[in-house]
Amino acid sequence: MGTYAAVVLAGGAARRMGGVDKPALPVGGRPMRDRVLTAVTDATPRVLVGAADAVPAGVLVVREDPPGGGPVAAAAAGLALLDPDVGVVALLAADLPLLTRAAIGDLLNHLDREALDTEPAGGGSAPASPAHSGLAPAHGGSASPARSGPGDGERRPDGVCFVDGDGRRQSLCGVWRVAALRAAVDRLTVERGGSLAGAPVRALLAGLVVREVAWSGEGPPPWFDCDTDEDVRRAEEWAR
User: Fold this and answer.
1) Alpha-carbon gap, residue 31 to 18, rounded angstroms
2) Which contiguous run of DSSP H or E holds residue 33?
3) Which of 19, 41, 74, 136 is most buried per CB count within 10 Å?
4) Which of 22, 26, 27 is nearest to 9 (CA)?
5) pLDDT of the residue at 120
6) Amino acid 52: pLDDT
7) How far is it, in rounded angstroms, from Cα 111 to Cα 211?
């Protein structure tokens, strides 16, 4: 996979942690959002969506509309800063302190492999083998492990994300085709009467073809997010 962009979502309210600026909390001596941005240091551009007093050099900062409007509004704000020629974006929560470049590379490689698998000699698109593709259309609620059904292999995937050991899709630890996400933002904006405030991520991804990938690398799961003080303590132990 060639160049890609990264959009890091840092505008959550952190209600279960008393409303603190959660992405700014340190893990292993560095703010969680900086650890996420480091995992995508080769992305161009890197966009942080949310309030931030200081960010690494070269990182663009934008606020979602309205501020605090949720992850879909934040994703839309980040996508709006990408040039038209950017084809792939890593869409990431800012509270993933254990995320690594190796994990991002794994996702990018799966997306790249699917493009090769579905591109026949001479151009055009061809169905991927369902047994190989692991494709699943996005749907509401918690995701189950990827399954292939009739027609699933007829489209290349719109994105790739990790799935945990319980079969839950980690949508904000994934890489996506920008055109597919932009089309999804436009569709959902119309469906919701012009406002994306409060829209759930599952509504954004509804209808997209997603490849779900189990983490096979070493170390802690890269999708581990910190929603509570106990989560932060666990991440600290892993980060040692």
Assistant:
1) 17
2) helix 32-39
3) 74
4) 22
5) 39
6) 80
7) 8
- SS3 at position 114: helix
H-run or E-run covering 163: strand 159-163
Spatial contact of 25 and 196, defined as CB atoms under 8 Å apart: no
pLDDT in tens, 25-35: 999 999 999 99
**Tokens (6 digits) for 208:** 């997209």
Residues 44 and 3 sit within 8 Å (Cβ to Cβ): yes
- Please, are residues 152 and 136 in contact by the beta-carbon 8 Å criterion? yes
- Write down the residue that tokens 């983490």 correspond to: 215
Q: pTM for this structure? A: 0.83
Residues of the chain with confidence (pLDDT) below 70? 1-2, 12-19, 114-154
Report how far apart, in Å, the C-alpha atoms of 43 and of each of 1, 9, 82, 108, 218 are: 12, 15, 12, 12, 23
Which helix (H) or strand (E) segment holds residue 205: the answer is helix 201-205
Residue 72 · residue 203 · CB < 8 Å? yes
∠ Cα 155 158 161 (to 5°): 125
The pLDDT > 70 percentage for the chain reads 79
Write out the DSSP string of 45-102.
Answer: SEEEES--S---TTEEEE--SSTT--HHHHHHHHHTTS-TT--EEEEEES--TT--HH
Contact by Cβ (8 Å): 19, 13: yes
